[in-house]
Automatic annotation (TrEMBL):
Coiled-coil regions listed: none
Protein's recorded name: Alpha/beta hydrolase
Region Disordered, annotated ranges: 363-382
Species classification: Bacteria, Pseudomonadati, Pseudomonadota, Gammaproteobacteria, Cellvibrionales
Length: 382
């Protein structure tokens, strides 16, 4: 082994310096290509067949909580030119799984005179803060005070994969998943209550409220947009519909939890999928098909996504009315590299360009509430 290692080192020492530099340059160019290569498909109204409102139950995301009266707290070392940045928090009306059961957000309030649109940025709960940080700070700087930004924090997990992986029996697993699904519902309602609060603010143009989510929060934001007509503009990054397919096919830590649970409970992959199809049926954005605004929606996805399967991506695209779409040819995490200088900030610039066109453009009257049948789902009456 030692002789082999020494021989390998000697071999690489004999490589010409120019060859080493060439290999390094090729690797860098490959990385840059992976970060920036993508297909941008425009929205075409002629392709959209969904023109009537769906009649699915919507009681799952109804609530009777009052308009929040948040507590504000200073953030003196994180200020951005043209804004007053403050933290705000208030008690959740549900069990949202966050520290102190609070709704915690960072509010970038524009110092410019007059009403400005609001962009709500959702987190990837208990995972990566990078995408939400880039969009929140980046769009505030980019818009130069022409938009307010509200960045919801997400330190607590909605689905704690390690907790799920440690369950010993079906009863414990059912209870843990029930609690997780309740948290998913809770953060959607928290988001709607943030909109309630936004409607009381004189600096916010409530005809122009946008929302953006990433991965799990793309799923949450799509459910919010499908149930709240106050959402004017929406961006879903690496999300999908049919969440049971994600649970059954996603890799990484989701796969780890799935394998541990399936082994302990003796479930097949299809049994696991069927269980989550029942548990997460009201978390499916496809339920709200026909109640989105496709002309103001952007989907960003990866066609080799190893967490969001093709059926889920296609279902979201169809349910939201075949909107504008940006397609990366890589996996679930690689597109985030294009939000960095290494990836020339391509993804960030595409998001900001879309928001410039849709959210920063003066809007007419807010849409009327969608007429639909209301029936509370079991156990969710509020």
């Amino acid at each position: 082994m030692k002789r082999l290692k020494e021989g390998t080192i000697r071999k690489y020492r004999q490589l010409p310096t120019v060859a080493i530099y060439s290999a390094a340059w090729l690797a860098l160019m490959t990385l840059l290509s992976a970060c920036t290569s993508h297909l941008h498909q425009a929205y075409s109204p002629s392709l959209t067949a969904h023109t009537e409102y769906a009649s699915y139950d919507s009681g799952h995301y109804e609530y009777a909580a009052p308009v929040p009266q948040p507590e504000f707290y200073p953030m003196p070392f994180q200020q951005i030119q043209g804004y007053r940045l403050e933290g705000l928090r208030f008690p959740s009306s549900e069990d949202n799984g966050q520290p102190g059961n609070l709704v915690d957000a960072r509010y970038f309030r524009s110092l410019k005179q007059g009403k400005k649109p609001l962009l709500i940025v959702l987190p990837i709960w208990a995972t990566h803060t990078f995408p939400a940080t880039v969009v929140s700070n980046g769009f505030a700087l980019h818009s130069k005070g022409d938009a307010n930004v509200l960045w919801m924090q997400g330190d607590g997990a909605l689905y704690d994969w390690f907790e799920l992986a440690d369950v010993d029996n079906e009863t414990e697993f059912f209870a843990t998943v029930d609690q997780s699904s309740a948290r998913f519902r809770a953060v959607a309602i928290d988001t709607r209550r943030l909109i309630d609060w936004a409607q009381t603010r004189p600096e916010i143009d409530t005809r122009r409220i946008g929302i953006i989510g990433f991965s799990m929060s793309a799923l949450v934001s799509a459910n919010v947009a499908g149930n709240d007509p106050r959402i004017h503009t929406a961006v879903y990054v690496l999300g999908g519909a049919q969440p049971w397919n994600m649970m059954a096919e996603c890799n990484l830590v989701v796969e780890y939890a799935r394998k541990q649970v399936s082994e302990r409970l003796g479930w097949s992959q299809e049994e696991y999928r069927a269980f989550f199809r029942q548990q997460m049926r009201y978390g499916d954005p496809a339920l709200w098909r026909g109640r989105y605004r496709p002309e103001n929606t952007l989907i960003i996805e990866s066609d080799k996504d190893d967490c969001i399967p093709p059926a889920s991506r296609a279902a979201l695209f169809e349910a939201t009315g075949q909107p504008e779409r940006i397609l990366y040819p890589y996996n679930h995490w690689q597109p985030f590299l294009s939000m960095t200088p290494v990836g020339r900030n391509v993804l960030s610039r595409d998001i900001f360009e879309f928001l410039d066109r849709k959210l920063l453009t003066p809007a007419g009257d807010p849409p009327a509430a969608t007429p639909h049948r209301t029936a509370h789902s079991p156990g969710t009456t509020r």
